[in-house]
Amino acid sequence: MAGVYFDMGEKIMHLVLLSGGSGKRLWPLSNDARSKQFLKVLRDEAGSPVSMVQRVWGQLGAAGLADSAVIATGRAQVDMVQSQLGPDVRLIVEPERRDTFPAIALAAGYLHSVAGVARDEVVMVLPVDPYVEDRFFRRAQSLETALRDSGAELALMGVVPSFPSTKYGYIIPEYAERLTQRNDGQNDESSFRGVRAFREKPDTETAQALMDQGALWNCGIFAFRLGFALDRLREMGFSENYQELLEQYGELPKNSFDYEVVEKTEHIVVVDYDGEWKDLGTWNTLTDEMTEPVSGRGILSADSVRTHVLNELDIPVAVLGCQDLIVAAGPDGILVTRRDASPRVKELVGHLNGRPMYEERRWGWYRVLDYTSFADGREVLTKRIAVEAGKNLSYQQHRHRSEVWTVIQGEGEFARDGVMRRVEAGDVLEIPAGMRHGILALTDLEFIEVQSGNPLVEEDIIRLCMSWEEAREMCRG
Description:
Oligomer: single chain
Shape: globular
């Protein structure tokens, strides 16, 4: 694959977006496969629902940065990313979840040994889901200038605090004076300050004192020369080669990049950003940015003030005479919480580790309708599956389960054991264990799938080919 880059004259900057998260802070609509960045509860300029990752991707495109970006994510999120951003988005897939240092280390190995990026070129790392204005990303581009002009090992971006928050970490510059700004309100591109120290999530009094010292919120955006990260890997005894790093991934320290690298680095500079920035990581902060109080099938009484309903179920949710309430309902559960208590939801449900009941995939989505386990060990799982027109399930087979599909909407081309046929609503398709099968949606297609066997796990899939063209060739052969 060719190197991905943002070209600024002779300078080249590469972007790595981190997409992770366990999905518990916005339970029950988020889960391990669909973290907060994928929830479509925001609106774009046309009023259409968008997720945080779609919003950020659009802003990167507007800033001319999307073509230079690669997303580092886990296996469980690959289909979700491709479903929302398209199949051509560049991905670095982590073999397992191990925090931000291993993810960034793997990305560095990819850029070096696969994309052919030189050691002196600059890499910018950022989360995939900040809620910011477009000019935030224009400002972020000045990290490269700050890094090159200062000779620092790391350049960070810090947000000028609007209040003494106890939820964010703080970057403490060497001096308190703010950077000069141009007439358009933007800081001078070449302006930066040295970093003296960091402080994690202080109490309110300490946060106010930090603000008085000119401290900035740490928004998780930083830049470094690629060789800086590669040198750290080599010093720790790890390979710079991407394929070898994949094999060593489980041995990398399960730690954040902040703790493993940033706090051990001496020469760091920071660039100010004075504008809107929010981490929509809890229900109260997320609903503050919703343009409508109801998402999905919901009914609010007129006296239900500062109350939001987010409903992904097919049944209505009604709220009567409640203030400062959030009701979130989805296949994984139902949450009713006061707005000010909503950040504590992870404490309440963090132990819940069941199968996700809803997932988006590259071809559409599925929802679990029912699960039964019998005394003899046999299991039965029922799903509703939707495949978007023109997309297909892979041509595949299962070792441990048989399936029965009942088409309830649309038309498709069904492949079974080398034979293709057209199917439509009302058709019932039987698929014994071991039989090769797949389907292409000619129109938007939905079917009910009943699995029977043991164990019933998503990993019980042998994918023979992904594209429908390949499936047709295999059937002809």
